[in-house]
Amino acid sequence: MGSTQARIAIDAMGGDHAPAEIVAGALRAQEELGVKILLVGDPEEVGAAVRKHTSASPLEIIPAEGTIEMGEEPLSALRRKPKASINVAMDLVKRKEADAVVSAGHSGAVMAAALLRLGRLKGIDRPAIGAVLPTLIAGKPVIILDVGANVDCRPKFLEQFAFMGTVYSQYVLGIETPKVGLLNIGEESSKGNELALRTHQLLQKNPQIPFVGNAEGRDVLSGNFDVIVCDGFVGNVLLKFAEAVGEVALQILREELPQGVRGKIGTSVLKPNLRRIKQRMDHAEHGGGLLLGVDGVCIISHGSSQAPTIFNAVRLAREAIDNRVLDRIQSRYKEDSQTSAVSGQQDG
Amino acid sequence: MGSTQARIAIDAMGGDHAPAEIVAGALRAQEELGVKILLVGDPEEVGAAVRKHTSASPLEIIPAEGTIEMGEEPLSALRRKPKASINVAMDLVKRKEADAVVSAGHSGAVMAAALLRLGRLKGIDRPAIGAVLPTLIAGKPVIILDVGANVDCRPKFLEQFAFMGTVYSQYVLGIETPKVGLLNIGEESSKGNELALRTHQLLQKNPQIPFVGNAEGRDVLSGNFDVIVCDGFVGNVLLKFAEAVGEVALQILREELPQGVRGKIGTSVLKPNLRRIKQRMDHAEHGGGLLLGVDGVCIISHGSSQAPTIFNAVRLAREAIDNRVLDRIQSRYKEDSQTSAVSGQQDG
């Protein structure tokens, strides 16, 4: 890929605001990001949504039938609906007709479809969802994984997450030697639950992972770590908590804004900024989670995604494609399969 | 107790700012909260700290020798130093010469000393640390437990935490029927890791716990729940993350404050409020965690506690004493030991 135009398949039927907002984000992405968008969904519905924006037909529409609903059990629904939009989108990547999938649909179904249709990368037992969040240090994001794919983990899974996060940080975020931390309840290596204690040992022994030690809750957004690994239960709780933080901060700000005449001046000056503050904390800003460890680039966006989130999700996908993240994960595993630098197979 | 004056033993030697800040908080607490403070520590050091504030000697000093240092392994250190301040403080409660202990020292040591010297309440397998946090709804705090005492939990432990949180919410926070939530990755009862799935079932069956369902990360500070239960690993990560949120919000606020002349007006108006905003999010405000499930009221304050935190910790202790939280936990377990309403002994 690299120099050729990235082709992104977007599940136009997935999410609370599909297809209208998905299409709006897709149109903007193709226009501004230099990618080719393949809109997957019901041709009539998607076509109508496109025509609301433009009379030209700038986006290719790939027909699909139906979608996986939020209440459905992913595996059986995917089997029952082979032509559902997410299945069709994954097949485009499998047939190398697209380089990535973006979906704001049922996240369990996206994961399951990716596993079933694309399979895992060699050396990876469990794919993880990575979320890239801003930190206190401007321009220095942190990738946290897993934020929801695996709720019960073994130490070797976390070791693999750490490795994938390292590659992502190096090649997409441009950090030569990323600081990798293990989410834990204390700095000392003696602290933690059974999973953390055993993972700590694996990470310390792994020469491929620039492990610097445990990261506590307060360190997550400090900017002192570039990669933070945890199981998908803790990561999901933390991510959703973080997403609510913008709202909490704004609410407190509103309540604490000074009253009276001086207060009114302050408020009027601040108001235009409130939106920007909220935006900075919002999930819209980071586009979605990157499903790392499957044989294809997949971005899982929030179910409530609107156009800006989809736009950012496409950007995230393009970055992963342009920087050949999957190849690099894969090739490093190949290189080191003799030296067994990733100890998972034995220890975890 | 109730009508008689609450007697609070404060570990004057525990914490980064001991004894100066501990003593300052203690003096203010005795003056304003109508409690009797027993300062436990080295008589000379503590006496000197008191004399910096007043020439009178308003506080009783109970002599102790040494303290448990942060790097020490709690159990062996507690045994090696029987007269350490935290041991002496716990013994005061055991001999019924004090009603509660407040300490900003080594939290593992405080827990271990409480278990060794006071023992567990009947019916409780594992004590939990509960943290009372403000929510988006003013005046409607939430108690989260466990935030650090038990990193690997069984379902019945979480069920007991839910019960203790319910009692606390009812009798201290005055919520007649508290909404109890289980921290999880989704609302549906089918979501979660093994621990969450099994705990969900126990909570649903327990008539003593007003369980309303799963709480996601975004619900923690929403005010929609009065009690949230989780294992001590997740709870600790979340609490420390929440404590850092004040700082993150302030930082973003500073960066996003408008520039130029209008900006300067806004900033000058806002500045006095920044401190109040930070305070509202700070751990100082909630005083510390309540160690629930041991046979005595124990408040574990942050190691970095200064005078205001200690003051609030004493208030928290007094509320637990005045509202007879331990008796109520104990007596309900007694009442229901026949009906086995807490299923832990069988299912967990």
UniProtKB/TrEMBL annotation, chains A, B:
UniProt keyword list: Acyltransferase, Cytoplasm, Lipid biosynthesis, Lipid metabolism, Phospholipid biosynthesis, Phospholipid metabolism, Transferase
Localization terms from the record: Cytoplasm
Protein name, entry field: Phosphate acyltransferase
Classification via HAMAP family: PlsX
Any one GO molecular function term: phosphate:acyl-[acyl carrier protein] acyltransferase activity
Protein encoded by which gene: plsX
GO cellular-component term (any): cytoplasm
Gene Ontology BP, a term: phospholipid biosynthetic process
Reaction catalysis annotation: a fatty acyl-[ACP] + phosphate = an acyl phosphate + holo-[ACP]
Pfam families with a match to the protein in the record: FA_synthesis
Assembly and interaction partners: Homodimer. Probably interacts with PlsY.
Keyword Transmembrane: no
SUPFAM superfamilies linked to this entry: Isocitrate/Isopropylmalate dehydrogenase-like (SSF53659)
Gene3D superfamilies: Isopropylmalate Dehydrogenase (3.40.718.10)
NCBIfam families: plsX
Organism (species): Stenomitos frigidus ULC18
Function: Catalyzes the reversible formation of acyl-phosphate (acyl-PO(4)) from acyl-[acyl-carrier-protein] (acyl-ACP). This enzyme utilizes acyl-ACP as fatty acyl donor, but not acyl-CoA.
Pathway in which the depicted protein is active: Lipid metabolism; phospholipid metabolism
UniProt similarity note: Belongs to the PlsX family.
Enzyme Commission identifier(s): 2.3.1.274
Top EC class of this enzyme: transferase
